[in-house]
Queue: 4 jobs
Job 1
Amino acid sequence: MTMQTDVFAVEFARMAAQWESIASEPNPVPGWELEIARMRDHQDRLRAAGQWRTGGRTLLHALWVHHNEVMMCRGLAWLLTPDGWHGLGTAVLDRLLDRLGVPTEGSARAVVTTEESRGDTRADVLVRFEGVAVLIEAKIWALEQRHQADRLAHDFGEEMPHPVFLTREGNYPGTAVTSRGRWHPITWSTIAEIVALGVSTMPDCEPGVKEYLRTLEIYGGTGR
């Protein structure tokens, strides 16, 4: 027997003695099995009443949509479309335009598209009306592609768009070199505030609006 093995044997014997000592002591919590059963019954009643909750806190979270940039952008595009079935009209679009310092006149005729390609670039969301174009490049977890911001600004430049960089942190795009001064950084949490203001003025909007808003308020675009 080596010295190391001998040390292990002594330590094991000491631990075994401790367990035997504990096992020989009286139960420190009389009736603990009954108490655990009562706790489980109480938990069952809470679960049945919907007061014990686990898992996704919103439907979009449960569906793992809250961290999907494409799906979240489509939801945003829906809310920005004036005649969408959401029932908000231009309430969200106008507040976003105000945030960007863009005139809202004519916004009721806005047309919103998603994933529109131009050259080798693609705009996540593009809003157009009366000579105005707002381009939104959104990020949740994905990194920027090579020269992405400059390429977007160049490829859609003839429309003189107002490019928006929508992220969790609200930072400027790292790939904006020649176009840096044109980009408007904004956060998903700010989008939540804008949507919330729209809902406050038109509370009879579709339930999907509030689901999207609740998801943004809880997760703030973090995709946790």
Note: The radius of gyration is 28 Å.
Job 2
Amino acid sequence: MIAREEPASVGQRMLWLIERYSGSHGQLNYPLLLRLRGPVDRTDLQLALDTLVARHETLRTTFARRQGLLTQLVHEPQPVPISTVAVEPRSAPGLRQRIVEEIATPIDPARCSIRITLWTLGPVEHVLCINAHHLVTDAWSCRILVEELLLLLAGAQPLPRLGWQYRHYVQWQQRQATAERLKADRDYWQRRLDGAQPPALRPVSPRPAGPRGAARQAAESTIEFDISPKTWQGLQQLAKTEHTTPFVVLLSIYYLLIRRETQDTDLSLCSPFANRTRTEVMRTVGFFVNMLILRTGVRPGSTFTDLLRSASCTVAEALEHQGFPYFLPPGQTRQADARRVEDFVFQMLPGLPPAAVVGDIEIEVLPPMVASRFDLELTVIQRQGNGLRAVLQYAPDQIDQALAERVATGCGELAATVTARPDLII
């Protein structure tokens, strides 16, 4: 059956180039993991997943070049294959290894954009993985899929009508008025990022031979730590006092940690923004998120509050111009092994939803297990019991372990300090 051809979005075209020329090797997989406790009816699960794929065009979209341009190929709905794998009961290490292997196995979006696996540890213990290529999903989309899957398993039919499919969003991008706005956003970023440099962190010496990123091993390049409920409450209060958000407060802490390591006064970090500025796409599954460069200056002798206020202005402007993703300014070139501004990332994720009971099944969303493709990435996740969980991922072929450990330790210590002393001289 012939697929319907639709143009790709600006963001999809850029992500396609990133994967083709950076050798990501599965690092653009975007998995959703669910633990199912109870007697799972395979027929009901198959029907629910088939309905999701039929409902959201991106989940049945592949990609190809047409006259040199990346093109979406939207296929007709078909039953989605589910790979069922038995795992020894109470074999948690074995299950984790299988999950890691599944997430690390590349998805070829030219053939299929999603891959679904159901691991069974017994008649009432399962883990479901909806592994999708990042070209067709993002964090917001995963929340939509969880909510709709719960409704479908509970027998809700029909689901609320969608506003737009992803192709409608691309059509909106191509309108003249939208194109003019995107050009204005592009011009803003070109001015804003002129001369921006990545943090001047000393590279690993000697660097491993081979392609950039070839030596990365997720198990050896992740540091996890907690920020206490008391400190989290203090950070929220500081944000309220300064008329900003906890995201900006935590971003400012990350800025300061990088400044302490580099003595830089011109700091540039990257962060994902949802980029859902129209109500029509609030329930649309697709790749909307934009990675934006947040560039902020630091005056020597200033206080943390000064940095916080500067960062707040930076984020406010980025929100206003989030429609156009990060781009390489015309005429600028990159060396294959050179550091880039977008290699240093901060993101803050909402807390995981509480476990839900659907019939005789308890469904729990598991913490994200997405391999970082950046040199240094700090992710902060709100915990259900209050407090924060922080995950620092680093590329061991680019960032020294000792440096990563200093950043992780310093993050917790600095978070506690600035809640009591926001006038701290930086």
Note: Residues 213-219, 328-334 have pLDDT under 50 and may be disordered.
Job 3
Amino acid sequence: MSCGERDYLEIARHYEACLELHGDTHRGVDWPNAEDAAARYRVMLDVIRNPEQPCSLLDFGCGASHLYEYMCDKGFSHIAYSGLDISEKFITLSRKKYPGNTYYCQDFLRDGALPMFDYVIMNGVFTEKLSLSQDSMKSYVCSMLRAVYAKARGGIAVNFMSKHVDWERDDLFHLPFDELVSFVTKHISRHFVIRNDYGLYEYTMYIYRNALP
């Protein structure tokens, strides 16, 4: 991995600054509005192939556990939720809100010690690159996807800013479909779905271990 000196920690510090400024809200995890955030949670949870069956889920980059709030509101009580974040501030907040959940506070690329889960969701983990170069961010993404996928029995869901937009912001990470697909098929799995149907300037990929039965 060429993302030197753990440059990705800049991203964690950015989200902590958002939390400090906006508190426990969608703005506190740097989502512009609550409606779009809810759409992302719905699409992320659609990665689960048998939604009526009990399963375990890791919310990777859980922030303030807003995905879990959405799950509670929508009645996803059969899903065993756990959260992970590199930020101690977010994990402290999440543990205070939901003491019954399991939370992990770690730099996963360094620590890597996690149990297996049926599904792992990575919502907004790679949306912003801030001052990181495009190549450094790509290297970070590739390292993270391979490591996280190794902890999923069923599959993972991850979203990225699309290249098919009216304009791009320099601090956001826009990743072309073909670059992601090329990496995933070569290094992770050939069983995947790309979702670009929910009205936002982004897309979500589901990466599975097996083809549909």
Note: The two ends are 35 Å apart (CA to CA).
Job 4
Amino acid sequence: RGEAAKALEANAARRSPKPQFIVASSMSTHSPWDFRFAPDILRETDERRWNADAEFDEYLWRLVVAKRDRDAFRARLAASMPGRAILHVEYGDHQPALARLPLEGAENLANAGSDWQLDPASKAFETYYRIDGQNFTPAPRAREYPIVEIAHLATLTVMAAGLPLDPVYARRAKLLEQCDGLYATCADRAAVLTFQRWLVDSDWVAQR
């Protein structure tokens, strides 16, 4: 919290004329949710509990903290690097305590033991994402997708930045279109497997 902005400011102070690609990632909203994160910043106007479920309540609180930190981070960047084009990509974590939510197949959990798993297409794995630019308009993509699986988020990020696509991202962009934003649950499994085989055969991925 705050360290990412300091790192970017220190880098900007070097005043390098070359384009830079810097990734700053925060995991503060991730589990475990069995303790109150940053209780010292609770405001008088904050609700002390948003949900009766303790873990889900903590999850919601961390979303509040994440938004405040993100807004402060962007304001700090705007003040320290006025006019600098910055691409922001934001995405959420899966819902907490998945096995305790009333989802499909959950009624069989007691009898399934460790082999029980949610369907990969379950809504329990759905979250949000957002791509927007500071001081520039991200390049538009060909079309919108109802759901974008995480494997495609890097491709969308590169496309939004307006960067040229190398051979891997060019193939990923075609797969994104072909699978309608899906990957693990793409109906055309042959297309996904062909892409993965191509990564290995082209030495982009080392096979072990």
Note: The chain is about 35% helix and 5% strand.
